[in-house]
Amino acid sequence: MIGRRGLLTAAGGVAAAGLGLAGYGFGVEPFFRLAVQRHALVPRGWPPGLALRVVHLSDLHAGAPLMAEARIEMIVAAANALEPDLVLLTGDFGPSIRFVNRVLPHADVARRLAALRAPLGVFAVNGNHDWWEDRAAMQAGRAGVPAMARALERAGIPVLGNRVERAGPVLVGGLESSWAFGVRRGAEDVPRMLGQVTGEAPLLLMAHEPDIFATLPGRVTVTFCGHTHGGQVRLLGWSPVVPSRHRYAWGHVREDGRDLVVSGGLGLSTLPVRFGVPPEITLVELGTA
């Protein structure tokens, strides 16, 4: 039989472990860890002999002290060290959390991201927070262009709002945020984007929110999304809270022969905590399994 002293000792141990885990989730994983999450896949209809290294970065949520200039520069250097052929940025570049005490100017964030290097190019799309944090863009509706997108364009990074561009042997498409004007009230235009697709080259699609994947046609070869932060807290491979009706929380998903890659993202939203899903650079090696 366990006596009172034993119970108190056990309770103290549990409390200490809980405090340790909380300290890790609030003070270590979000700020000091940076994982490289690798996925290797051969999509349906992928051209034989074509190998492509894609670095996918999402949900930067720049703002000090949580995501200050030095942290962005470190992420960019780590991404460049992977020697990608192509870099895809899937939105939410600015802060979305009350713990930010210094908002970084859009131009400063864009200038640092412009240091990313890839021979086939660096491309971006807007996330919901790029719209929500820009009152003028929201008021302009579908004709609006978020200020962050303007800054990225000035820095030389194309922002593909329902557009398609050629990138060597592939096409890169981008959809506007499907939460641009509120939860599930978006500015995406899939028919417009697909109407610009010509030829048979693989189409790599960027979309901030992953739920759009469920409705996309087979012409889209691989879809790259962010938004979920992997749930930001992940316990034994399960995320209790995911902003996705289809629970596209994190990682590589294959449905009906179609491929989706959801990045766990880099920054923070709502609370300054990550547990079990560290900030990540997502490396997708296409044509290799």
Descriptive report:
- The chain has helices at 4-27, 29-32, 69-81, 106-113, 128-132, 135-140, 147-154, 190-194; strands spanning 35-41, 52-57, 86-89, 122-124, 163-167, 170-174, 203-206, 222-225, 251-255, 258-262, 280-286.
- It has two domains: 1-32; 34-286, Metallo-dependent phosphatases (Purple Acid Phosphatase, chain A, domain 2, 4-Layer Sandwich).
- The longest helix has 24 residues, at 4-27.
- Helix 4 packs across helix 7.
- By secondary structure, the protein is of the alpha/beta class.
- The radius of gyration is 20 Å and the shape is globular.
- A six-stranded mixed beta sheet has the order 5-6-7-8-10-9.
- The protein is built from eight helices and eleven strands.
- The N and C termini lie far apart (55 Å).
Question: Key terms for this structure?
Answer:
8 helices, single chain, 19% strand, six-stranded mixed β-sheet, 289 residues, Purple Acid Phosphatase, chain A, domain 2
Which helices and strands, and how do they pair?
Layout: H1 4-27, H2 29-32, E1 35-41, E2 52-57, H3 69-81, E3 86-89, H4 106-113, E4 122-124, H5 128-132, H6 135-140, H7 147-154, E5 163-167, E6 170-174, H8 190-194, E7 203-206, E8 222-225, E9 251-255, E10 258-262, E11 280-286
Parallel strand pairs: 1-11, 2-3, 3-4, 6-7, 7-8, 8-10
Antiparallel strand pairs: 2-11, 5-6, 9-10
Helix pairs in contact: 3-4, 4-7
